[in-house]
Design goal:
The protein has about 450 residues and is of the alpha/beta class. The protein has a domain at about 5-120 and about 275-345: FAD/NAD(P)-binding domain, CATH 3.50.50.60. The longest helix is centred in the middle third of the chain and has 21 residues, at about 175-195.
Length: about 450
């Protein structure tokens, strides 16, 4: 336990390693330190690990939130040298080697910062107030609820303009998350929702994917980009390239030098930035909130502080490594090994990233995979995507449940999760969840 005005310290002689964040980087770092001659404390504001690669499927009613989350304590229940603390980190005192949390203070000998990233609004007016984000389970559930509420409202809406707003869904950002959610949303709407709401015509529904650049899926080979654009278009997604957002309001997206888009739903996947914990702790960051680290992943401010994953700007050759799970996992393991080297009096080694390729899924039997100089599209790429994501999902039960849901959706073109839940509405409430959505949205997504 942490007592408010006291410092949690290790009573044993083993060095104390603290890991902030239980995402891919933090989890893999902790695993690399399991059963080693160190005491490890893992801190996270949630008591579960989220498999973020499938978060968009929760928002598209394909998977339950519990199926892509796993209790952190269950992961490490057999590792006696690993402790978990449920807390929000407020600040790090590098000089005193103390972490300030909302539950008290924690002292460390070595620190791994794996706090991850948050959504970047780029200072565009109205984004934080009116757009839906897709970085947490709560945000994914809120978005799924909102999509269903839009259809519920559209059935009874007599005003044509308002009806068009309710049935127009704008996704901003043509990266992996935006593409994958656009495809999943198209399949949800064109399949189960149209069956559920026969009074709504498909001609009244629009899914618009907006991208500021001249291509989708930046970082993927051109062959995969072209395939992605073609496939989304075939699925009924209107892709608008070279389109920049100037402002977001409750009922429209205002564009630069183009006509406004009337929409009650704006999903913002346009970018991410490093978590603010580094900035709050006086650790130098770039404009994107990421910490420029040494080749060994150490922070320039302290040799016993390592920064990994999305929070780290890891430079390799002439590029900064992308904010993807593989970078997080590999850098987490490398940081853990370097700490063990330091403890034994050896020098930390430079991090070397092993690029295992990239992949993106667009929809049923449609995906793009890039491995080295080879690219794959279509069913084979989609099958590779399925296998790799199932393999990396934590927990046997989760794998089974996800596989069942995927099979159900694939064979029957059906999704069983089309309900507004949790509703956050008391049984004594005078109004339904859907009637309260606009009032509660900002509280849920922050």
């Amino acid at each position: 336990m942490i007592i408010n005005d006291k410092v949690k310290d290790n009573s044993t002689s083993a060095p104390h390693v603290v890991i902030i964040g239980a995402g891919f980087g933090g989890l893999w770092a902790a695993r690399a330190l399991a059963d080693k001659a160190v005491n490890v404390t893992l801190i996270d504001k949630n008591n579960y690990h989220t498999f973020l690669a499938l978060l968009y499927q929760v928002a598209a009613a394909e998977l339950e939130a519990e199926q892509i989350a796993y209790p952190i304590r269950s992961i490490f229940r057999r590792q006696k040298n690993i402790d978990f603390i449920l807390a929000q980190v407020k600040k790090i005192n590098i000089q005193k080697q103390i972490i300030e949390t909302d539950g008290g203070l924690i002292r460390y000998d070595y620190l791994i910062m794996a706090a991850g990233s948050v959504t970047e609004a780029f200072g565009i007016k109205g984004v934080e107030e009116h757009a839906y984000f897709l970085k947490t389970l709560e945000q994914a559930i809120a978005l799924k609820n909102h999509i269903i509420c839009c259809f519920e409202a559209a059935i009874h809406e007599k005003n044509e303009t308002r009806r068009r707003e309710l049935l127009t869904f704008v996704i901003v950002g043509g990266g992996a998350t935006g593409i994958e959610y656009a495809g999943a949303l198209a399949e949800l709407i064109h399949g189960p929702l149209i069956k559920d709401y026969p009074k709504i015509s498909l001609q009244d529904v629009q899914i618009i994917l907006v991208e500021a650049a001249d291509n989708l899926a930046a970082g993927m080979p051109q062959k995969v980009r072209d395939y992605t654009f073609k496939k989304l278009s075939e699925m009924g997604v209107h892709v608008r390239l070279n389109t920049k957002v100037r402002e977001v309001t409750p009922s429209r997206v205002i564009l630069h030098d183009q006509n406004d888009l009337l929409s009650a739903t704006v999903v913002w996947t346009a970018g991410v930035r490093g978590d603010e914990i580094a900035h709050l702790s006086d650790i130098k960051t770039g404009r994107d909130g990421r910490v420029t680290v040494k080749p060994t992943l150490q922070a320039h401010e302290s040799s016993n502080v390592y920064v990994i994953g999305d929070l780290a700007a890891i430079r390799e050759s002439d590029r900064v490594l992308p904010m993807v799970a593989q970078v997080a996992m590999q850098s987490g393991v490398a940081a853990a090994k370097n700490i063990l080297r330091q403890i034994t009096g050896q020098s930390p080694e430079p991090f070397r990233y092993n690029d295992r390729g990239a992949m993106i899924t667009i929809g049923r039997r449609a995906a793009g995979v890039s491995i080295g100089n080879k690219t794959f599209q279509g069913f084979f790429a989609w099958f590779i995507w399925l296998v790799i994501h199932l393999f990396n999902l934590i927990g046997f039960r989760n794998r089974v449940m996800v596989l069942i849901n995927w099979a159900w959706d694939y064979l029957l073109y059906e999704r069983a999760l089309r309900f507004v839940f949790p509703s956050c509405t008391s049984s004594f409430s005078p109004s339904s969840y859907c009637s309260r959505t606009s009032d509660t949205r900002s509280k849920i997504i922050k």
